[in-house]
Amino acid sequence: MKILLTGAAGFIGSTAAQRLLARGDEVVGVDSLNDYYDPALKRERLRLLEAAPNFRFVQLDLADRGGCAALFAGQGAGQGAGQGFERVVHLAAQAGVRYSLQAPHAYVDSNLVGFVNMLEACRHNGVQHLVYASSSSVYGGNERVPFSERDGVDHPVSLYAATKKANELMAHTYSHLYRLPTTGLRFFTVYGPYGRPDMAPFLFARAILAGESIDVFNHGQMQRDFTYIDDIAEGVVRTLDKPATPDPAHRKSAPDPATSDAPYRLFNIGNHRPVALLDFIACLEKSLGRRAKMRMLPMQPGDVPTTFAEMSALQAWIGFAPSVEIGEGVDRFVAWYRSYYKV
Fold it and tell me: For all residues of the chain together, what is the average pLDDT?
């Protein structure tokens, strides 16, 4: 297939792109290469992708409406069967819960304006399926665990979460009005090689190796459904291969938030094994061969104490659920980290 993948220089995007390229798909990767974190890591991810002859990179800010339209027009859409993008994986977004408290307009530009530009481009160019990144953060203040796609998610606790909830609503509108098949994936705490430097595994590994203290929020009383990157990429690709369809059991009198009478689906993708933060730190200590110095701090604004994915819906849909255990995943991450940073 000919696939557009946005956020191609990102953590999840680059890994998913590698899987698509390896099986022979043609991938056009888009990224703005912004400096939210070190662009050198993004360029290294791109370097690995550009070794494949069936990959092409386009640098573009998806908030640029004209640029998005030109991107699709440049693929020959409408000029013959199979020449335009057949499917789209939209992973580009302004990431980070805490940063959304500092730079809210960046989330509006990327996560709202950029998303509607992508919806419009898909609508007008006959895209067969749009798979897009949502987030476990949409569960906000919910306390019932595991988090189910059937739960209401109307109480976000960060602007980042609110933009992801908005994406789900926007996608449903286009599925309903224009019969555009859309599938949203709510990612749960993704980690692994080539991960984001602003996430806990990177921050903790760097500090532990440097003999510095790590910040442990909510005094360590937190759990996360850590999900290994290879499992996430496998889920993205399998989901892309199965376009969303209307749910014949959907009832407007008692609607399921995760399905519709339109071609629209929402799924969690997590490991379904929440890990206590202090246990995660212990795994890092064991793998690094160093003890962590911990600075216990209160809960941060916009954060939540627990994430825990109910996975039965995605498993039934694509026959797959994440399975990499935390110890194995941390060992793989640490091996890569030491090699990449030569520490």
Answer: 95
Tell me the residue length of the chain: 343
Angle at 48 between CA 73 and CA 52, to 5 degrees: 55
228 catalytic, yes or no? no
Give the Cα separation of 287 and 330 in Å (integer).
7
Q: Could you give the CA distance from residue 140 to residue 132 in angstroms, rounded to a whole number?
A: 19
**Structure confidence by residue, pLDDT tens digits, 170-180:** 999 999 999 99
- Helix, strand or coil for residue 210? helix
Place of tokens 């898909």: 122
Partners of 134 in the β-ladder: 186
> Cα–Cα distances in Å, from 302 out to 98, 144, 146?
7, 18, 20
Contact indicator for 112, 101 with CB cutoff of 8 Å:
no
Model confidence at 104: pLDDT above 50: yes
Residue at 306: amino acid letter? T
Average pLDDT over residues 123-150: 96
Q: Is the dihedral of CA 6, 7, 9, 14 positive or negative?
A: negative
Whether a cis peptide bond, with omega within 30° of 0, leads into 146 is yes
pLDDT digits (tens, 9 = 90+) for 231-241: 999 999 999 99
48-52 long-range CB contacts below 8 Å, 24 or more apart? Answer: 48/14, 48/18, 49/8, 49/14, 49/17, 49/18, 49/21, 52/21, 52/27
Q: DSSP letters of 107-139?
A: HIIIIIIHHHHHHHHHHHTT-SEEEEEEEGGGG
**Per annotation, catalytic residue among 107, 132, 139, 160:** 160
DSSP string, 126-190: T-SEEEEEEEGGGGTT--SSSB-TTS-----SSHHHHHHHHHHHHHHHHHHHH---EEEEEE--E
- Spell out where 13-52 has E strands: 26-31
- Nearest CA to 162 out of 103, 97, 114 is that of 97
> Per residue in 312-337, pLDDT tens?
999 999 999 999 999 999 999 999 99
